[in-house]
Amino acid sequence: MTDADLAHLDAVSALRAFRALELSPVELLEALTAQVERVNGDRETGVNAFTETLFDEARAEAERAADAYVRAARAGEPTPPLLGIPVATKEKHPLAGRRIEQGLAAHAGRVADADHPVVERVRQAGGIVHARTTSPEFSCATVTHSPMWGITRNPWNLAATPGGSSGGSAAALAAGMTTLATASDIAGSTRVPAAFTGTVGYKAPYGRIPGLPPLSADWYRGDGPMARTVADTALLASVMAGRHPVDHTSWGPHGEPVPLPEDPVAALRGVRIGLSVRLGGFAVDPEVESSTLDVAKRLEDAGAVVVPVELPWTSGQVMRTIFAHFGQVLGPAVERESGGLHRLAPYTRRFVEDARRAAERDGLLDSLALDTAMQRELAIAMSGVDALLCPTNAVTSLAADSDYLDGIEIAGSHRDHYWEAHLTSPFNVANRCPVLSVPSGTASNGVPIGVQVVAHPHDERTVFAVGAAVEALVPRKPWPTLGAEQGTGSPT
Asked: Amidase domain: which residues (predicted)?
């Protein structure tokens, strides 16, 4: 197996090879390190997925993991679930003794005094944190660039963004610079970049994966896994999930594997899947619509019952609902942490100003009423199906370096806010629903397209089963080879 093959090796296969002593954790880490040096590039023109790398520490851990596999093989003993697997962690997930800046000038030089719960659990499971990934300022954008860390670009088309806010994690996975990655999601920050990079991103039900207070109490948010396959994503989710003393909102068992069907396509027979291309009133690019309909037909041909689902939502209703919430929580948090709007990137200033105006219009009780109206409408729409299928993003790409202060054109119509380019935030309003973004095809500009699989509250089994079926049914292109021709179409 070449270094390039190892760089994109999935975690489940790597663990199997480790246990059989057919592959060493050191070999895998060295392949990833070589890939980083070959393809990551600089902060202006390269993929630029990392805020820092920890290769020396990671190599020492990989050597210890390799020894542990030899001992375990001799003794016939089990090994921890991620032993020797490299994991890139989003910079907002603190590592004790390392900087925790979140891209904010006001946080420059800050150092974390403890690991984030998801980092703690990755390490306890034997995972090796070898790099930390970029995000926009305070994770407040669906593009990934900042004055602090430069521009992060999509490996499939360097003119395009990998999405945000977990853009560095997504880019690192697509470019073969990590095996697994951590992410977070408050309006689509895991699913948006997963779709734009042909990777898999999971937004767990609220509280299923522990976060850090005080924002762990924000019922829109959640931390979670990203990977290149559904099985890898389920594996990392099981490691992260479960009750943790740091987060009072956390719940459920820790370390319990998410069951996946042995034959996910066969398991589709009779499953009722609702299809909504626009979630009511979203404008959607024709290529995205075509890709989503293709997935629905593949599911139907495999034995699922696909039925159209009507939602009464408008994009204006969705934007009012989420910004009423952000006006009460995230907007004030950014203002408090930033040291003044003059120190923020234009897209962050725009977010804070929009949130402030929303808070002046809608108070907390108004925000709760808006939330519960959308939740009820979704519950009614999904009452006759086991899962819902819809696009992840409404557009085929976003430009890597743009702020989108003047809105965006989608399918021939102008939208005032570029967040209307994503169909993700309704499921942060309905944040007890598990949602998985899985690849559904590739646009003409070379950038991947994704669909969301949405299940009923807390039904993780269904969301992963249907996601695994989509993965099995949709053909996948080879991973991008930087230096070869990538996408030539212009981003939106």
From this structure: 28-463
Tens digit of each residue's pLDDT (9 = 90 or more) over 305-351: 999 999 999 999 999 999 999 999 999 999 999 988 889 999 999 99
Q: What is the pLDDT of residues 398-455, one digit of tens each?
A: 999 999 999 999 999 999 999 999 999 999 999 999 999 999 999 999 999 999 999 9
What's the rounded Cα separation, in Å, for the pair 441 and 207? 31
Please give the C-alpha separations between residue 253 and each of 85, 220, 250, 398, 461, in angstroms, as whole numbers. Answer: 22, 21, 10, 38, 14
DSSP string computed for 52-88 = EE-HHHHHHHHHHHHHHHHHHHHHT----TTTT-EEE
The pLDDT of residue 166 is 98
Domains of the chain: 3-473 (3.90.1300.10)
**AA identity, residue 283:** A
Question: Has 315 been annotated as catalytic?
Answer: no
**Would you call 189 a catalytic residue per the annotation?**
yes
DSSP class per residue in 160-174: B---SSSHHHHHHHH
Measure Cα distances from 201 to 127, 247, 325, 362 in Å.
18, 22, 23, 32
pLDDT at 90: 98
- Please state at what angle helix 315-328 crosses helix 346-361, rounded to 10 degrees: 90
- The answer to whether residues 114 and 94 touch, using CB atoms and an 8 Å cutoff, is yes
Q: Which of 146, 165, 291, 367 is catalytic?
A: 165
Catalytic site residue from 139, 169, 189, 440: 189
Whole-angstrom distance, CA of residue 35 vs CA of residue 406: 37
pLDDT tens across 6-43, in order? 999 999 999 999 999 999 999 999 999 999 999 999 99
Of the candidates 24, 90, 139, 146, the residue annotated as catalytic is 90
Half-sphere exposure of 413 (CA within 13 A, CB side): 13
Residue 490 phi, psi dihedral angles, 5° rounding:
-80, 140
| Average of per-residue pLDDT across 127-150 | 98
The size of the chain, in residues, is 492
Q: How far apart are the first and last CA of the chain?
A: 38
Q: What is the mean pLDDT of the chain?
A: 97
Catalytic-residue membership of 297:
no
Q: Quickly tell me which residue has 């949709």 as its tokens.
A: 474
**Cα(83)–Cα(64) distance, integer angstroms:** 10
DSSP per residue, 140-202: --SS-EETTTEE--BTTBTTB---SSSHHHHHHHHTTS-SEEEEE-SSSTTHHHHHHHT-EEE
